Automatic annotation (TrEMBL):
InterPro entries: BphY/WalK/GraS-like, HATPase_C_sf, HATPase_dom, His_kinase_dom, HisK_dim/P_dom, HisK_dim/P_sf, PAS, PAS-like_dom_sf
A GO term from the CC aspect: plasma membrane
Enzyme class name: transferase
Histidine kinase domain sequence ranges: 209-429
Any Gene Ontology biological process: phosphate ion transport
Protein species of origin: Modicisalibacter muralis
Chain segments annotated as transmembrane: 20-42
Keywords, in A-Z order: ATP-binding, Cell membrane, Kinase, Membrane, Nucleotide-binding, Phosphate transport, Phosphoprotein, Transferase, Transmembrane, Transmembrane helix, Transport, Two-component regulatory system
GO molecular function list: ATP binding; phosphoprotein phosphatase activity; phosphorelay sensor kinase activity
Cell compartments where the protein resides: Cell membrane
EC number: 2.7.13.3
Name this protein carries in UniProt: Phosphate regulon sensor protein PhoR
Principal subcellular localization: membrane
Catalytic activity entry: ATP + protein L-histidine = ADP + protein N-phospho-L-histidine
Length: 453
């Protein structure tokens, strides 16, 4: 306000002074016009100096101005200097980020909102074969063309990493992780896990080989023990008890070896051969019969079929997964408990998928154990699990079977409220078709609360 008041006084002095001079000379109008013209000339000269300074010499000291122009020059200079300092700090930060990314052994690739390459570190050039001269601005899927990566990129669900071989070296195994940031931009990181992959492969091969080698001596032991068992009545009582215990432990070892071999096959065999529409109703009925034999008729088992859709998969593997869930329910629930096998649409009221559920009204499981239940040999109650003859591999087998069928395992349980194990299959695994007439009978029996015999 101070400077504007001064400008008004300056205008008054110029117009008044030149107007008075013109009045003395007999030309007051020319005097007034001259005062206004001089005032405009001064402002135009300052405006030109401002333009020349901003265009040609922005980093130099501002021109000297009077009045409001002097204040304007000073303010613009301070603002411009602050902006230069801010830009320099940002450039320093970007340079440090790039230097730190260059020092990383992991590949770092920055993608814009369209998925085009913007920047990457030197590790990305070594692992992914990126070249600054040709690849900048290219879409990432033009360079990483593996269908699994393209599907992972387009799915926009980056909670879990993706493991793939390097596009330039088959012996280099990379773990890809995408992260969304900024304006729908993406950060791609690739880590070399070749050593871990080899160690894991060695572990799987070791377990598979040892398990395979154990089958022969266990078979021999089981055969001799069975022979001795036939003449147990001729042996002393102490020997009889020893033979019975050895038979039980040999059987347990054989079950453990069989489960380890099955797990090894599930982990190493990634083929999806023999996938076909499954008769869920007859499969569940067969599993129910086996479970009743295991329980000795002390549990109530029920089947509920709530959707006519069939599941496309490998019957032997799906049967193994569901059998493990049902047999666990039989082993770990008290006699008289109810166990339900249910096939239904999932989520409720949609056709987005379907679920195979096994639920019971037993003691339940503390939620603290649920995240680790699918780990190998993990047991909630080690003493009771050993007594029931479990190997500790059942849920690990279920997990791998479901992974091979694009499905997932959900577990819901609380102490005293029973347990629910849900195998959720995507819509791509479902086949439209009517189930057999026997399933309708079982479904109606389930709806009326009657147990199938």
């Amino acid at each position: 306000m101070y400077y504007w008041t001064n400008e008004l006084w300056r205008l008054a002095y110029l117009v008044g002074g030149l107007g008075a001079l013109g009045w003395v000379l007999g030309e007051p109008g020319w005097g007034l016009a001259g005062g206004l013209g001089l005032f405009v000339f001064i402002h135009l000269r300052h405006l030109r100096e401002l333009y020349v300074w901003l265009i040609r010499h922005p980093h130099q000291e501002p021109p000297v101005g009077t009045g409001v122009w002097g204040d304007l020059f000073d303010r613009l200079y301070r603002y411009h200097k602050h902006q230069r300092q801010t830009q320099q700090r940002l450039r320093d930060i970007i340079r440090r980020v790039q230097d730190s990314s260059e020092a990383m052994r992991d590949s770092v690739v920055m993608l814009d909102r369209r998925g085009d390459l913007e920047w990457w570190n030197s590790a990305a050039e070594a692992m992914l074969g990126l070249q600054a001269a040709h690849d900048r601005g290219q879409h990432i899927t033009n360079l990483l063309r593996d269908p699994r990566f393209v599907e992972y990129f387009n799915a926009r669900d980056y909670r879990e990493p993706l493991t793939l071989p390097s596009p330039i070296r088959d012996d280099l195994i990379l773990q890809f992780q995408l992260t969304l940031y900024g304006d729908d931009e993406r950060l791609l990181m690739a880590r070399d896990i070749s050593r871990l992959h080899r160690l894991e492969q060695m572990r799987r091969d070791f377990v598979a080989n040892v398990s395979h080698e154990l089958r022969t001596p266990l078979t021999v032991l089981a055969g001799y023990l069975e022979t001795y068992g036939e003449y147990a009545d001729q042996l002393p009582p102490r020997w009889q008890r020893g033979i019975v215990q050895m038979q039980g432990q040999t059987t347990r070892m054989q079950n453990l070896v069989d489960d380890l071999l099955l797990l090894a096959r599930l982990e190493t065999d990634h083929r999806a051969e023999q996938a076909a529409p499954l008769a869920i109703d007859s499969m569940l009925d067969s599993i129910r019969a086996d479970a009743e034999t295991l329980s000795g008729g002390s549990h109530h088992l029920r089947i509920e079929i709530e959707t006519p859709q069939r599941l496309s998969g490998i019957e032997q593997e799906i049967r193994s997964a569901v059998s493990n869930l049902v047999f666990n329910a039989v082993r770990y629930t008290a006699p008289g408990s109810s166990i339900v096998m249910r096939w239904r649409a999932w989520p409720d009221g949609t056709q987005d998928g379907a679920a195979l559920e096994v639920s019971d009204d037993g003691e339940g499981i503390d939620p603290v154990h649920i995240p680790r239940l699918t780990e190998r040999f993990y047991r909630v109650d080690k003493g009771r699990s050993a007594a029931t003859g479990g190997t500790g591999l059942g849920l690990a087998i279920v997990k791998h079977v479901l992974l091979r069928h694009d499905a997932r395992l959900e577990i819901e349980s609380r102490p005293g409220e029973g347990a629910l194990f849900r195998c959720v299959f995507p819509a791509e695994r479902l086949v439209n078709g009517e189930l057999q007439a026997s399933s309708a009978g079982k479904a109606s029996a389930a709806g009326s609360g009657q147990l199938p015999q």
